[in-house]
């Protein structure tokens, strides 16, 4: 019989147990090479050498949740909390627009200050000022009704990582109050409402097994998201996972390649967490099938405060510096950073 990675390349419609077998290939250099090569081939069929860019605006680090891995969890009393004003958010967009960004991502903790009405106002304001730009929300779990209001106000896309598709593992990463069922339900609601949806998970989070990762892949195949965000888990010093080891760059790259083959047209970022674990992590991500980068547009004065994990990169740079740096990084591996919206194809 052919090696499992060759079977996967021929027909990626794998079951959980086949994914388990596939993930074990992450140790086999020949398998890794072949999978990355195939991932790059596929990404170039749909997207050529283009890399899309999203301007990330981290507008609040207040959060009502208490996820054990996250630096801005509610019970971290050392976190210095901030909220951007509407004017500050608009200034980030303006700056981003000038730099060529045509997608803005509003990301924040689950912050009750931003009621549905306040969010709708901000969404409308951004879409009125920049009608040709895509607006992505990444603001956590909400009701169907809230998601509907945001969609009607003009939001185009929504990022909500599922974090892990295994119930037991989910329990080990989150307090009792949160549930995987609710999370998955949110993702399906978002799909129903016509958002381009992004799911995803951390790689190497505490207690994660190969079986868990296989379940993540099964779930992604079932959900068919337009976007998938994955990055290595990185410990944050003020959480109970402070002493846990970080996730591996190699495993993240391997999974990026697998996800590209599984969901050929997916919009797949080379994440900041990957760049934090390895100075060339994002470049390596692009060479494993990623086709999106998400530089930071948040005001420099707040960047360090949006600290989900330790040693996060790009916290000292002005947006323009980040944009320039990213352009060079993308070009260094033979790709081209483009300004178009980069919708799902
Ligand atoms: N390490 C890596 N990624 C993290 N995230 C949160 N905390 C960490 C961490 N310690 C990720 C989660 C979340 C996204 C916004 O950031 O997957 O969905
Ligand atoms: Fe942000 Fe390099 S991409 S400074």
From TrEMBL:
Record-linked Pfam families: Radical_SAM
Domain Radical SAM core: 49-271
Superkingdom of source: Bacteria
Residues where S-adenosyl-L-methionine binds: 163, 183
Residues holding (3R)-3-methyl-D-ornithine: 138
Gene Ontology MF, one: 4 iron, 4 sulfur cluster binding
Chain positions recorded as [4Fe-4S] cluster binding sites: 63, 67, 70
Keywords, comma-separated and alphabetical: 4Fe-4S, Iron, Iron-sulfur, Metal-binding, S-adenosyl-L-methionine
The protein's required cofactors: [4Fe-4S] cluster; [2Fe-2S] cluster
Gene3D superfamilies listed in its UniProt record: Aldolase class I
GO biological process: sulfur compound biosynthetic process; water-soluble vitamin biosynthetic process
Textual note on the cofactor: Binds 1 [4Fe-4S] cluster. The cluster is coordinated with 3 cysteines and an exchangeable S-adenosyl-L-methionine.
Listed NCBIfam families: rSAM_HydE (TIGR03956)
Protein name, per record: [FeFe] hydrogenase H-cluster radical SAM maturase HydE
Phylogenetic lineage: Bacteria, Bacillati, Bacillota, Clostridia, Lachnospirales
Gene label: hydE
């Amino acid at each position: 019989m052919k090696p499992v990675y060759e079977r996967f390349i021929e027909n990626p419609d794998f079951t959980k147990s086949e994914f388990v077998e596939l993930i074990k290939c992450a140790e086999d250099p020949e398998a890794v090479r072949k999978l990355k090569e195939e991932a790059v081939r596929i990404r170039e069929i749909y997207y050529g050498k283009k890399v899309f860019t999203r301007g990330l605006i981290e507008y609040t680090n207040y959060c009502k949740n208490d996820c054990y891995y996250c630096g801005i969890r509610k019970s971290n009393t050392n976190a210095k909390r901030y909220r951007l004003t509407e004017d500050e958010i608009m200034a980030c967009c303006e700056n981003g627009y000038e730099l060529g960004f045509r997608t803005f991502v509003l990301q924040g903790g689950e912050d009750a200050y931003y009621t549905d009405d306040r969010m709708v106002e901000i969404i409308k304001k951004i879409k009125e000022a920049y009608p040709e730009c895509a607006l992505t929300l990444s603001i956590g779990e909400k009701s169907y009704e809230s998601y509907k209001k945001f969609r009607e106000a003009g939001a185009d896309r929504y990022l909500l990582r599922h974090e892990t598709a295994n119930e037991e593992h989910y329990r080990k990463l989150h307090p009792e109050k949160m549930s995987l069922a609710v999370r998955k339900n949110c993702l399906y609601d978002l799909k129903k409402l016509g958002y381009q949806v992004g799911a995803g998970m951390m790689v190497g989070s505490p207690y994660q097994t190969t079986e868990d990762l296989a379940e993540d892949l099964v779930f992604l195949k079932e959900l068919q998201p337009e976007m998938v965000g994955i990055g290595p888990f990185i410990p944050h010093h003020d959480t109970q996972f402070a002493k846990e080891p970080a996730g591996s760059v190699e495993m993240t790259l391997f999974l990026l390649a697998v996800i590209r083959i599984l969901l050929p047209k997916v919009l797949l970022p080379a994440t900041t967490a990957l760049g934090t674990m390895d100075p060339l992590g994002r470049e390596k991500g692009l060479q494993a099938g990623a086709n999106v980068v998400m530089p930071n547009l948040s005001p420099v004065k707040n960047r360090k405060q949006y600290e989900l994990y330790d040693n996060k990169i790009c916290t000292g740079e002005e947006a323009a510096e980040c944009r320039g740096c990213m352009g060079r990084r993308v070009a260094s591996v033979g790709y081209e950073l483009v300004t178009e919206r980069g919708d799902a194809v």
